[in-house]
Amino acid sequence: MLSKEESGNRTYRFLNNLINCGWMSGYIFQLSEDRKSFYIRQSEYASGIFLVELDKNDYLPQSYQEGSGVKIYARLAAISNFGQPSIVLKVLSLEQPSLNELPKSDPLANPTTANSFDIYKEFGLEMPFGKVVNNVIVAGFLDGLVFDKDPKGEKKADCLLLNLRTGPDTFLPVRIYGKRCQVQYDQIKKLKNRGKYLPIAFNCSLRSKAVTLSGSEAPVIMSYLHSSKITFMDNASVNNYFLGKPLWLHKIIESEAKPE
């Protein structure tokens, strides 16, 4: 993991020359036995639960236990759950959050260590709480845009599903909600190649859904970028989202242009 000084280096905010980073706070939930993965839980609902993984050479320090508060600085990576796209947070650094960065505790957040006790109940105190940190900034290229559908297969006019290409073989799922979905959709589809590989960015939050998928015995947590708009770039703002030229995209476009 990065040290506190290293995490302040702007370079670490980028992956594949595209900005890709996020800050999240919450409680540790379902910590793995090898201390290399857990969920960060921001509420008792599925929408506020996100999978976190540490690098192969890193482990969660022993000072953090099931139910501990934590704040992480992370990159967003794509994973597949039973063939469906989702997002996992890859830790760059972590720290103990301030109390105003933690949600109100609930039974799921109770620590499970052998010597634990509730210090607030012990002395009749009220635990302070604040607002969770949930902010991600990701840039990439448009690689698919369709309207979501309801269980009957009909178009949901207030929800767009977007594939955000963030690397040669990496796609992050994005869900865009709001009354302007049709306007944004029409604007993009009028462009050359129907907007494919349009450089876009999102400064938004993460959300999750508990979905029952074919092949899974229990509901699966599926995470995605949650936004109300698509941020388009002009040449003056590119430097906010790009560290350098993403030359890997040239190879992809060239390969698609070759006749079969």
Concise summary:
This protein is mainly beta. The chain has helices at 4-7, 119-122, 181-189, 248-257, and strands at residues 14-15, 18-29, 37-41, 49-53, 69-81, 84-95, 134-149, 155-167, 170-177, 199-211, 220-227, 231-232.
What does this 3D model show about the protein?
Helices cover 10% and strands 42% of the residues. The protein is mainly beta and 260 residues long. Strands 1, 2, 3, 4, 5, 6, 7, 8, 9, 10, 11 and 12 form a 12-stranded mixed β-sheet that branches. β7 and β8 (155-167) form a beta hairpin. It is globular, with a radius of gyration of 20 Å.
Keywords:
260 residues, mainly beta, twelve-stranded mixed β-sheet, 4 helices
Uncertain segments: none
Strand content: 35-45%
Helix amount, in percent? 10-25%
Task: Tell me the span between the first and last alpha carbons.
Answer: 44 Å
Overall 3D shape: globular
| String of helices and strands | HEEEEEEHEEEHEEEH
- How is the main sheet built? 12 strands, mixed
Care to count the β-strands?
A: 12
Kindly name the structural category. Answer: mainly beta
| Assembly form of the protein | single chain
**Structural Rg:** 20 Å
Count, helices? 4
How do the strands and helices of this protein lay out in sequence?
Layout (H helix, E strand, L loop, with lengths): L3 H4 L6 E2 L2 E12 L7 E5 L7 E5 L15 E13 L2 E12 L23 H4 L11 E16 L5 E13 L2 E8 L3 H9 L9 E13 L8 E8 L3 E2 L15 H10 L3
Parallel strand pairs: 4-6, 9-11
Antiparallel strand pairs: 1-2, 2-3, 2-5, 2-7, 3-4, 5-6, 7-8, 7-10, 8-9, 10-11, 10-12
